Amino acid sequence: MKTPRIMTLAMLLLANTMAFSSARAEQPLQRTDLLKNDIDVAGHEAVQVRVDFAPGVLAPKHSHPGEELAYVLKGTLEYQLEGRPPVTLTAGQSLFIPSGLAHSAKNVGGGKASELATYIVKKGAPLVVPAK
């Protein structure tokens, strides 16, 4: 009699654990740090990050303490750079974002989207600065 109850409890715990793991793995906007290294420019470093966007997700307006080179790995992303018309890029296309320029990015495609962001930034400064 106790064995079926124990089995049921074990299955419920396993199902809850799997659901929690799946929810954590599928975050709407996920940044994965890939590389951080000093460069020959005094006081600066190179940083490379993969950013994965769920469908419809917006990375709110922000800036960086240096230049960003955004390369779309997958999907379709719309970039809005302050004072400029929106730019829509698909996999294989790149965009240069000047230092300190406020911008946002949104997944406007039907599936997941990913970008490879390479930054040349001031060493020790926060990489992402939310726009005011």
Detailed description of the structure:
The chain has 132 residues and is of the alpha+beta class. The chain has a single domain (27-130), classed as Jelly Rolls, CATH 2.60.120. Helix content is 18%, strand content 50%. It has one helix and ten strands; from the N terminus they run αββββββββββ. It has a five-stranded antiparallel β-sheet with strand order 1-2-9-4-7, with no helix packed on it. Strands 6-5-8-3-10 form a five-stranded antiparallel β-sheet, with no helix packed on it. Strand 1 and strand 2 form a beta hairpin. 15% of the residues are buried.
What distinguishing features does this structure have?
Jelly Rolls, alpha+beta, 132 residues, five-stranded antiparallel sheet, 50% strand
- Compute the average pLDDT: 87
Q: Please indicate the percent range of residues in DSSP E strands (runs of 2 or more).
A: over 45%
**C-alpha-based Rg, rounded:** 20 Å
pLDDT < 50 runs, ≥5 residues = 6-24
Helix coverage percent: 10-25%
CATH class: Mainly Beta
* Number of separate helices: 1
InterPro entries: Cupin_2 (IPR013096), RmlC-like_jellyroll (IPR014710), RmlC_Cupin_sf (IPR011051)
Domain Cupin type-2: 50-114
Keywords: Plasmid, Signal
Protein name: Secreted protein
